[in-house]
Design brief:
- The complex is a heterodimer of chains A (122) and B (184).
- With 122 residues, chain A is α+β, with helices and mostly antiparallel strands.
- In chain A, 43% of the residues lie in helices and 19% in strands.
- A five-stranded mixed β-sheet of chain A has the order 2-1-3-4-5, covered by helices on one side.
- Helices cover 35% and strands 26% of the residues of chain B.
- Chain B has 184 residues and is of the alpha+beta class.
- In chain B, helix 1 packs antiparallel against helix 3 and helix 4 packs antiparallel against helix 6.
- Chain B has a six-stranded mixed β-sheet with strand order 3-4-2-1-5-6.
- The chains are: A alpha+beta (122), B alpha+beta (184).
- Chains A and B meet through helix 1, helix 2, helix 3 and strand 2 of A and helix 1, helix 4, helix 5 and helix 6 of B.
- Chain B: It is an enzyme of class 2 (transferase).
- Chain B: Pfam families: HATPase_c.
- Chain B: It comes from Neomoorella humiferrea.
């Protein structure tokens, strides 16, 4: 079965990535998945991120989610946390912005300031 | 919500927020009776009896960030609009079960939508929960379970891009086969 062979390849690439880096040095992308986020298109944003990470074979990025954090008017919200850097929150993200966030912020380390709604610690 | 799958994602998020360890999503397309039934059952903390009467009120929420709940009442409104119904059963400490039934041929019925992306989004939660998704259509059935996926992945976490992307495509392919390539 073709899908399972593909899963096996993903697993091997991922295990290799785990061997190469410290567990706590992982980049992280967090998508807001409250009702407000879902209704604003958060799931499409997450799909675009997953697709872009898959295409670029970026295995060292954790993708996760959070509930409503009270910034409903800015949904869909995406947090990017690079190791050793403060958390950056992007607002009103759509699928195309999400792909650019992966390319610019995750790959090149450049924050796209015009879409940032909050910067935090961590 | 433009898709039934987005309502389902909202229910999955509720279940995760309730601390569920196991969530079962069952979708049954009964083409003979012209009904689609969507069931989400979790073993989360459940809803107290006095709150149960209120959760379908859009102005009720346990959240402290804003004063609207909206998720469940929105799905209930969609079900009612499509000649159907949404029911909620819950036992504090044991779990919650939401069942929505809608008429398949109803002109207001939203498309099922991207179930693959919905399950992938729910699996991206850092909370450890087993998610089982069963989709029946007539005699045919598609099934996905996150514990099966974990068995294949070993120590590799679910919430990395390529794995979740694979889940999305795997589920959508399975559903396309179930529907025999028909459009929704």
């Amino acid at each position: 079965m073709k899908s399972l062979e593909e899963l096996q390849r993903i697993k091997e690439a991922q295990l290799e990535a785990i061997r190469l880096r410290e567990a706590d040095q992982k980049a992280k992308i967090v998508v807001g998945m409250g009702t407000c986020g879902i209704a604003a298109g958060a799931r499409e944003v997450m799909s675009a991120i997953l697709d872009e990470l898959g295409k670029r074979r970026l295995t060292g990025v954790a993708v996760t989610q959070t509930g409503c954090i009270g910034l409903c008017a800015q949904e869909p919200l995406v947090d990017v946390i690079l190791p050793g850097k403060p958390r950056v929150t992007y607002g009103k993200v759509d699928a195309s912005k999400a792909r650019q966030i992966v390319a610019q912020h995750i790959v090149n380390g450049i924050v796209i300031s015009e879409w940032v709604v909050n910067r935090g610690e961590e | 919500m433009e898709e039934l799958a987005l309502h389902i994602l909202d229910l999955l998020e509720n279940a995760l927020a309730a601390g569920a360890r196991r969530i079962i999503v069952t979708i049954t397309e009964d083409t003979e009776r012209g009904l689609i039934t969507i069931e989400v059952e979790d073993d989360g903390r459940g809803i107290e009896a006095e709150a149960l009467a209120q959760v379908l009120d859009p102005f009720y929420t346990t959240r402290k960030t804003r004063k609207l709940g909206l998720g469940l009442p929105l799905f209930q409104a969609t079900a009612a609009q499509c000649g159907g119904d949404l029911t909620l059963e819950s036992r504090p400490g044991q779990g919650t079960r939401v069942v929505a039934t809608l008429q398949l041929g109803h002109p207001d019925l939203p498309p099922l939508g991207d179930m693959g992306a919905t399950i992938a989004a729910a699996l991206s939660s850092e909370q450890e929960a087993d998610i089982i998704y069963r989709h029946r259509r007539g005699q045919k059935e598609f099934q996905f379970s996150s514990s099966w996926l974990k068995l294949h992945l070993g120590e590799v976490p679910l919430n990395c891009g390529p794995v979740l992307d694979w889940v999305r495509r795997y589920i959508n392919k399975g559903l396309a086969e179930l529907h025999g390539g028909e459009d929704w």
